[in-house]
Specification:
Helix content is 66%, strand content 1%. The chain contains 15 helices and two strands. The chain has a two-stranded antiparallel ribbon with strand order 1-2.
């Protein structure tokens, strides 16, 4: 019974594809996968917006949306309707074609990267041998879309926001890529399906997730921090620093085009969160052996919602960084730590299995972490802040 529930969507797709002639079946299979991806993750976007606004309201001791529908649950629908019917204002001096294409170029490739994410057992739309490489290659088009939006708007604030966004995204894309290398080295494959398969099973009661190794934990933390910056999430949301450059690279966008940028950012967040789950958190596997009766796709989306909740928590509690702090953190801390973590997984691989490789690998990661952290803080002694008030 548990297996039937776990594979219900797989069997349903096979049944639907079987209704068509053999020549049409590959196309029908692809279309069904596309419809499922768009429907599921667009719905998750709507759910996340209401959860985030209510969560931030709770953190900041204020009300969130509470007027549209019971407890405000229909607020995403109201926002979507407003975005569709709102006037589309295009600057007179803007490059109208590029201005129109920028949000489309941002959103369309994001849906493609979901095709290599295993959201459940036998539920990977496109099983590629180079799935991780495909994910990052398609995701790199985001920088192009951001530059198109900033340049086409013919606005100095928009262009400045685009330059800041591209500098940030390129800087953090390097440690983001390097943080995945230890997993690829440990598994010996770029296939997301094989990476999840390598983490199935249990050692006693502990799952064989890579996050439960010293190099895996370090890689997961580095990956999540870099993914936060790549998604322009707080405390790395400098491209949208409203106190400095108003709304960043999409300042000249309104209506449905603005909604597409908003959608693209959240879809990108879901995508990198899904990849983090695949690489470090066992993908769709259950955290405990006696919970394997729960469908695999439930575990994937439960982990995804947990990560989204963590991102919301960080946004409501951590202040925004300065631009110099952001760049220094990327090049002077994140990049060296990502390279050192590659050495840590090599130590883990070639030391004999047993207790001693745990402290050895932890030392390889922890000692440089202390040295780099102190170097990044500088030689200035941190003192207690003193508040002075005018007499």
């Amino acid at each position: 019974m548990a297996t039937t529930i776990d594979q219900v969507f797989v069997n349903l797709k096979l049944w639907a594809v079987g209704l068509f002639p053999a020549a049409w079946q590959p196309l029908v299979s692809a279309l069904l996968s596309i419809i499922a991806i768009i429907g599921v993750f667009a719905t998750l976007f709507a759910i996340t917006t209401i959860l985030e606004r209510k969560g931030l309201g709770r953190i900041q001791n204020r009300y969130g949306p509470n007027r549209v529908g019971p407890c405000g649950i229909l607020q995403p629908m109201a926002d979507g309707i407003k975005a569709i019917i709102k006037e589309d204002v295009v600057p007179r001096s803007a490059d109208k074609l590029v201005h129109f294409l920028a949000p489309v170029v941002l959103v369309a490739p994001v849906f493609l990267v979901y095709s290599v994410l295993p959201v459940g057992r036998n539920m990977t739309p496109l099983d590629l041998d180079a799935g991780v490489l495909f994910f990052f290659a398609i995701g790199a088009t985001t920088e192009l879309a951001v530059f198109m939006a900033g340049w086409a708007s013919h606005n100095k604030y928009s262009l400045l926001g685009a330059m800041r966004a591209i500098a940030q995204m390129i800087s953090y894309e390097v440690p983001l890529l390097l943080s995945t290398v230890p997993v690829i080295m440990a598994v010996g494959s770029l296939s997301t399906v094989r990476i999840v398969a390598a983490q199935t099973g249990y050692v006693g009661w502990l799952p064989r997730w890579f996050v439960f190794t010293p190099w895996g934990l370090a890689g997961f933390i580095l990956f999540v921090i870099a993914a936060t910056a790549e998604s322009n999430r707080s405390p790395f949301d400098l491209p949208e620093g409203e106190s400095e450059i108003i709304a960043g690279y999409f300042i000249e966008y309104s209506g449905f085009k603005f909604a597409l940028f908003f959608l693209g950012e959240y879809l990108g967040l879901f995508a990198v969160s899904g990849l983090a789950i695949t690489l470090f958190l066992g993908g769709w596997s259950a955290p405990l052996s006696f919970l394997t009766w729960i469908p695999s796709w439930v575990w994937f989306f439960a982990k995804l919602l947990a990560m989204i909740g963590a991102f919301i928590w960080v946004r409501g509690t951590v202040p925004r960084l300065r631009m110099d702090q952001l760049m220094n953190f990327a090049w002077k801390f994140m990049l060296p730590m990502a390279l050192i973590n590659i050495l840590a997984v090599a130590v883990w691989r070639y030391l004999p299995a047993g207790f001693w490789r745990w402290p050895a690998c932890a030392g390889v990661v922890w000692l440089p972490y202390l040295a780099l952290g102190r170097g990044l803080a500088g030689s200035k002694r941190v003192t207690k802040r003193v508040y002075r008030y005018a007499a």
